[in-house]
Design goal:
The chain has 337 residues and is of the alpha/beta class. It is built from twelve helices and eleven strands. The strands form two sheets. Strands 10-9-6-5-3-4-2-1-11 form a nine-stranded mixed sheet, with helices on both faces. A two-stranded antiparallel sheet has the order 7-8. Strand 3, helix 2 and strand 4 form a beta-alpha-beta unit. The radius of gyration is 19 Å and the shape is globular. The chain starts with a helix and ends with a helix.
């Protein structure tokens, strides 16, 4: 019953498409709720897109005075990739948050992230605590630690050179193959309905092979990048965070091997933060998409206490457009998904 209600809410078109100018092109996304209210900025995970929040936002937006801006990161969804020859460094995402903050001239941000988006939100809060009201992190905190060696760095450089040469149309697959690949990439943490939320902005019809589809994410995203922010320094810096923080850990997440470092930071935040609202929840890494009702009420309670309603400071309404008509509803019916 809950799944049917969620599907109905998603189809109500309670959002508008938005295009935000940036120096290398545009950032695309969805603005849910009234345009005159400053939104909560929502940041998705690696190789996802803003559709990642399509089932959670309806559970959080029943309050008519709350808005959400869910964005596609560069190289994801409908957003512009970085210029050819440029690598996707984690800190570029942190810079993006500041560009959006400055574009709208907000006084403060409320950040909500999942996975990579949680890491971006956490580091943005650590670096600019005076610009953040509160932060919500779903199944991640600090950036994953990388073991750096000459072999791993060389492999990253070689991968970049390889993927930077790609031209023409990427490989094409049937919809069934696309879904299988996504299931494998996400360790079976998504059901079909959740995958469809991501597909709209993740694939396009092949121009060479009728009836097949190509992934649209920038292949350069496959290049491994490293952030050498060692754990000892992260513990020291995390202790400076006073901002209220909501942290959710998925018990069946495929990020379990990183949990020791995660909990070391969590223990620091429990002491330093004004409020550290932590929850361990039974579910997969994408529980906000596959089982949003499990965390929806928890996040709403946190926002009720810590989110301040302010003007959105919009000066240019041409950044909005109507939602893009979904091409996957008919496809899903055709393939009996």
């Amino acid at each position: 019953m809950m799944r049917a209600i969620l599907s109905k809410k998603i189809l109500m078109n309670s959002y508008k498409e938005i295009t935000i100018p940036v120096p290398w092109g545009k950032i695309s996304g969805k603005w849910w709720g009234p345009s005159n209210c400053k939104p909560i900025l929502c940041i998705h995970g690696f190789r996802d897109n803003c559709g990642s929040f399509d089932k959670l936002i309806p559970l959080l937006s029943e309050n008519k005075n709350i808005s959400f801006l869910t964005i596609d990161l560069p190289g994801h969804g409908y957003s512009s990739p970085f210029p050819q020859g440029m690598i996707y460094n984690f800190m570029n995402y942190v810079i993006l948050v500041q560009l959006i903050y400055e574009y709208f001239e907000w006084s403060k941000l409320t950040l909500l992230g999942h996975s990579l988006g949680s890491m971006i939100a956490f580091i943005s809060t650590l670096l600019y605590p005076e610009k953040v009201d509160s932060v919500i992190c779903i199944d991640a905190l600090q950036p994953l630690q990388s073991v750096v060696s000459k072999e791993s760095v060389r492999r990253s450089v070689d991968d970049f050179l390889k993927y930077n040469k790609f031209g023409g149309e990427p490989p094409a697959y049937s919809l069934e193959e696309i879904i299988q690949k996504m299931n494998h990439a996400y360790h079976q943490s998504l059901d079909i309905e959740s995958i469809l939320c991501l597909l709209e902005r993740n694939i396009t019809q092949s121009k060479v092979f009728p009836g097949k589809y190509c992934f649209t994410v920038d292949p350069i995203l496959k290049v491994r990048t490293m952030l050498n922010w060692n754990q000892d320094q992260m513990i020291i810096d995390a202790a400076t965070i006073r901002n209220p923080i909501f942290i959710c850990e998925a018990k069946q997440s495929y990020l379990q091997k990183y949990r020791k470092l995660f909990h070391e930071i969590l223990d620091v935040l429990r002491t330093s933060s004004k409020e550290c609202d932590f929850h361990m929840i039974i579910g997969s890494h994408h529980l906000h998409l596959s089982e949003p009702e499990k965390i929806g009420v928890l996040i709403r309670n946190f926002l009720d206490k810590h989110h301040n309603v302010e003007s959105s400071n919009l000066k240019d309404l041409t950044i909005f457009s109507d939602p893009v008509p979904s091409s996957f509803k008919d496809i899903a019916i055709k393939h009996k998904l």
